[in-house]
């Protein structure tokens, strides 16, 4: 069991993932017909995976074989093969709520490399805390093979938040040949004061 350092209670953290997951399922998953979610097997990451799935079904249509949730494990290479074999159009990496940022970065990099080796060529969907843990992808882009693979993907999507403006932003991540990263915003959504306040007090455990 990980140690929580957040000022938010576990109940508030889970509710926050319901609020955030709704926006992810509506906006970040838009246009995709088959989505694989890799979730870290803890309460908070599983919460956002479930919330995003429900929101996706409600907005974009319920049906069989549209979403599959996979738990991250040391056998991530086999999981990546299953995802590619299943024919996922998009993969959402749901990491970052209950674990130290150093661990989030580690499992994020391992998941990216497993997807690369398995031959995934679809849309990569990022969680803001994986983005932060990887220092805006810089830890991944130090690897030339990952840099080449990420640049080859048709699209990389990311959500971020501005709690003071009470906004969620959805962006496409652009990566230059020399590894410079820029964001191209394609959607923004107002959030409630309640949502913004929960984001302010929600913090991952320290490294």
Q: Could you spell the SSE succession in H and E letters? A: HEHEHEHEHHHEEEH
Structural class computed from helices and strand pairing: alpha/beta
Query: Under CATH, the topology is which?
Result: Rossmann fold
Low-confidence stretches: none
In whole angstroms, the N-to-C terminal distance is: 15 Å
Basic shape: globular
CATH superfamily: Response regulator
Compute the number of helices: 8
Number of domains: 1
Can you give the helix content as a percent range? 40-55%
Instruction: Tell how many strands the DSSP assignment holds.
Output: 7
Query: Strand portion, in percent?
Result: 15-25%
Average predicted confidence as pLDDT = 94
Largest sheet, in brief, is: 7 strands, mixed
CATH class: Alpha Beta
TL;DR of this structure?
With 207 residues, the protein is an alpha/beta fold. Helices cover 45% and strands 22% of the residues. The protein has a seven-stranded mixed sheet.
What does this structure look like?
- With 207 residues, the protein is an alpha/beta fold.
- The protein has one domain: Rossmann fold (3-Layer(aba) Sandwich), CATH 3.40.50.
- The protein has eight helices and seven strands.
- It has helices at residues 10-28, 43-60, 76-86, 101-118, 128-133, 138-141, 144-152, 193-201; strands at residues 35-39, 67-71, 90-94, 123-126, 156-162, 167-175, 181-190.
- A seven-stranded mixed sheet has the order 2-1-3-4-5-6-7.
- Helix 1 (10-28) packs parallel to helix 2 (43-60) and helix 3 crosses helix 4 (101-118).
- The protein is globular and about 40 Å long.
């Amino acid at each position: 069991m990980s140690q929580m350092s957040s000022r938010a209670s576990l109940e508030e953290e889970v509710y926050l993932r319901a609020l955030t997951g709704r926006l992810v399922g509506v906006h970040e998953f838009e246009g995709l017909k088959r989505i694989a979610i890799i979730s870290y097997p803890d309460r908070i990451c599983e919460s956002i995976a479930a919330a995003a799935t429900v929101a996706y079904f409600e907005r974009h249509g319920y049906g069989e074989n549209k979403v599959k949730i996979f738990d991250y494990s040391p056998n991530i290479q086999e999981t990546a093969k299953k995802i590619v074999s299943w024919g996922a159009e998009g993969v959402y990496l749901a990491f970052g709520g209950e674990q130290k940022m150093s661990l989030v970065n580690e499992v994020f990099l391992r998941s990216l490399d497993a997807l690369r080796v398995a031959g995934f060529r679809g849309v990569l969907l990022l969680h803001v805390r994986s983005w932060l843990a990887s220092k805006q992808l810089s830890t991944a882009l130090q690897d030339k093979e990952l840099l080449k693979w990420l640049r080859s993907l048709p699209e990389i999507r990311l959500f971020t938040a501005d709690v003071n403006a009470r906004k969620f932003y959805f962006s496409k991540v652009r990566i230059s040949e020399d590894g410079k990263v820029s964001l191209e915003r394609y959607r923004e959504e107002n959030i409630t004061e309640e949502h913004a306040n929960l984001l302010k007090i929600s913090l991952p455990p320290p490294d």
